């Protein structure tokens, strides 16, 4: 008959069973009293063989117990030759694999609590595996068993309660949470989540408030407890009670910097608007909590950086720079988001405080650092600083480096070309954009930028032809690119080429394409004003542009020039001075317009002053400006 065999992964059962039988047999015999064996011999002794009965059920795998071998007695050593040896206690065994034959040492045995924790962990892992396999019911049951084995584990209890709440079983969720609270009454997380179950699932606001307040009572230095109470009052529309909660949290004696940082982060999220504004009281609270965090950890770069981030968002550039500088001085390795770009934030804070001379060498050092040398945005940042410092050639080198790091981005090619145009290196800009157009043949915006560069180089016929190509590339493919800005650039090129009517047509298309874009209104109005045409309509267009963007110096200059052309010289002076005050750097056109206005008002000295300042800035028509200056000097001499 063919012998039946268990699969290989079950054969350990047979070995374990045979080993247990052997240990049982030999153990009982070894522990038998001496009187059980009356027969002895001085030289040899033989242990009797245990007679093991075959199990009642037939099992072809059973092979019987192993035959006992006779134990040979060791030779008798004379007493005078014996050496006493210290008895070794042997190795200690932990009960990772408990055995009744090899007990673990008492100090290595699992306590009942530890055993429960181990079993809870096993159940939790079973739940995770079931969840990964798409068996949510099995997972939940495993997690519930884990929570019952270790109810003091608040994170586990909250997880199980969350899953139950998702299934619309708030009653069971509350039971789990209350069991956990009974086992660990000073753990705030379970109180907080209990309050959320009461509020969101059962609409029991008073019970929710009571549970959240209990969290603040058992753990006053755990900020999420205070945040939970605030959100409950705020969600119910009780702003007064919500504000009172923040004041109580502010008076906390907490000695943990983490408490104050969490507090500050919460206040930033709730109170600080995108433009960095908040009420004076809200700003006071935020400033207080961040300063307390710094007081507790003055030598922690992350804490200092987070305080700096708040002050930077609140537009308090001086304080932001102070905290960033202190954090950088500590020279600690980045540990989180706050410290990841700390050196860059410090540089930007220097710029915000008008300390460009200090910022530039630090940015150069950062760009050379091997850890950041592959960041193209740093080279763009450095290029902008070089441009502001008037170091045009260095700026262009940084833009080129940024392009080398990433030639796949069309914007990098366009950015370099714009810098070349600003540096009046028009041929270089045209070459950059021509290469980019070959590399990105399906990007009509590059064709449009090439047309604009040709216009700046005064290659007007080529520019207008290239704009026609850009329009043809867009038609039928992505007509959304026929934007206001495209028509505006095209109109500018047409005007420079002397095609005034074409420019007007294109600017009207720009306005039609985007009625909320102010640029075309201003350009069309100014173009008419400059030529003394349609002055009333021109004035309306310029005022519409200012209505859409009332802080734009160029539009204010257009309005001043409109008043000049209509003979309202005082109004013209007012608007032109307003335009000049809003400019970061003086503009030759605005200064020339002011000079013309002062001349009409009979103030020849101021007229000369503004014309001479304009001449230093490379105006579009320097010869005409020189003629004005010479004529004014002759009048002064007369």
Unreliable spans are 1-72
Mean of all residue-level pLDDT scores: 84
> What is the number of E strands?
0
CATH-assigned fold name of one domain: Serine Threonine Protein Phosphatase 5, Tetratricopeptide repeat
Largest sheet: none
- CATH-scheme architecture of one domain: Alpha Horseshoe
Note down, in words, how this protein is organized.
- The chain is mostly helical.
- The chain has a domain at 524-637: Tetratricopeptide repeat domain (Serine Threonine Protein Phosphatase 5, Tetratricopeptide repeat).
- Helix content is 67%, strand content 0%.
- α19 (410-422) packs antiparallel against α20.
Strand and helix map with partners:
Elements: H1 11-30, H2 112-132, H3 136-149, H4 154-166, H5 170-183, H6 188-201, H7 205-218, H8 223-235, H9 239-250, H10 257-271, H11 280-296, H12 301-313, H13 317-330, H14 337-340, H15 342-352, H16 356-368, H17 376-388, H18 392-405, H19 410-422, H20 426-439, H21 444-456, H22 460-474, H23 484-496, H24 500-513, H25 518-531, H26 535-548, H27 553-565, H28 569-581, H29 588-600, H30 604-615, H31 622-637
């Amino acid at each position: 008959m063919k012998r039946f065999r268990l699969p290989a992964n079950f054969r350990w059962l047979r070995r374990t069973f045979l080993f247990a039988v052997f240990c049982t047999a030999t153990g009982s015999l070894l522990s038998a009293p001496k009187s059980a064996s009356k027969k002895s011999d001085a030289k040899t002794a033989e242990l009797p063989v245990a007679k093991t009965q075959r199990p009642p059920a037939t099992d072809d795998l059973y092979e019987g117990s192993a035959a006992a071998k006779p134990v040979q007695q060791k030779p008798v050593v004379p007493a005078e030759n014996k050496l006493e040896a210290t008895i070794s206690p042997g190795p200690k065994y932990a009960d990772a694999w408990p055995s009744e034959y090899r007990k673990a040492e008492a100090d290595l045995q699992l306590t009942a609590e530890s055993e429960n924790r181990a079993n809870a962990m096993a159940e939790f892992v079973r739940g995770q595996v079931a969840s990964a396999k798409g068996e949510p019911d099995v997972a939940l049951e495993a997690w519930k068993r884990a929570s019952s084995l270790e109810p003091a584990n608040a994170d586990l209890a909250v997880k199980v309660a969350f899953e139950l709440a998702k299934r619309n079983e708030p009653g069971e969720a509350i039971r789990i949470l209350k069991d956990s609270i009974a086992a660990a009454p000073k753990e705030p997380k379970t109180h907080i989540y209990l309050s959320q179950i009461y509020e969101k699932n059962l609409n029991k606001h008073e019970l929710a408030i009571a549970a959240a307040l209990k969290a603040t009572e058992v753990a006053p230095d755990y900020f999420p407890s205070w945040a939970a109470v605030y959100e409950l009052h705020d969600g119910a529309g009780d702003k007064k009670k919500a504000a009172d909660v923040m004041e109580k949290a502010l008076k906390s004696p907490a000695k943990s910097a983490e408490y104050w940082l969490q507090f500050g982060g919460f206040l930033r999220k709730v109170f600080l608007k995108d433009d960095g504004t908040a009420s004076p009281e809200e700003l006071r609270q935020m400033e207080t909590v961040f300063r307390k965090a710094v007081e507790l950890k003055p030598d922690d770069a992350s804490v200092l950086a987070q305080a700096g981030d708040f002050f930077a968002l609140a537009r308090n550039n001086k304080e932001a720079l102070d905290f960033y500088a202190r954090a950088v001085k500590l020279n600690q390795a980045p540990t989180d988001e706050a410290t990841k770009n700390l050196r860059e934030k410090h540089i930007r804070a220097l710029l915000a405080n008008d300390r460009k001379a200090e910022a530039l060498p630090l940015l150069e050092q950062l760009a050379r650092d091997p850890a950041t040398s592959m960041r193209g945005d740093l080279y763009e940042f450095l290029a902008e600083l070089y441009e502001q410092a008037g170091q045009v050639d260095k700026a262009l080198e940084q833009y080129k480096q940024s392009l080398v790091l990433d030639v796949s981005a069309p914007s990098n090619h366009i950015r370099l070309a714009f810098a070349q145009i600003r540096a009046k290196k028009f041929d270089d800009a045209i070459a950059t954009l021509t290469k980019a157009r070959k590399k990105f043949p399906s990007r009509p915006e590059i064709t449009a930028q090439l047309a604009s560069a040709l216009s700046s180089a005064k290659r007007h016929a080529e520019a207008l032809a290239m704009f026609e190509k850009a329009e043809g590339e867009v038609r039928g493919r992505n007509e959304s690119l026929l934007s206001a800005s495209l028509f505006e650039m095209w109109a500018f090129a047409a005007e420079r080429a002397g095609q005034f009517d074409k420019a007007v047509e294109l600017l009207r298309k720009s306005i039609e394409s985007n009625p909320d874009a102010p640029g075309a209104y201003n350009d069309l109005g100014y173009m008419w004003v400059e030529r003394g045409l349609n002055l009333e309509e021109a004035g309306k267009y310029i005022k519409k542009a200012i209505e859409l963007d009332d802080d734009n110096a160029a539009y204010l200059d257009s309005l001043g020039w409109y008043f000049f052309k209509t003979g309202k010289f005082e109004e013209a002076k007012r608007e032109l001075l307003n335009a000049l005050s809003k400019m970061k750097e003086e503009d030759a056109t605005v200064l020339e317009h002011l000079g013309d206005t002062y001349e009409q008002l009979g103030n020849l000295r101021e007229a000369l002053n503004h014309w001479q300042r304009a001449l230093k800035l490379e105006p579009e028509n320097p010869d005409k400006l020189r003629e004005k200056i010479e004529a004014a000097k002759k009048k002064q001499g007369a």
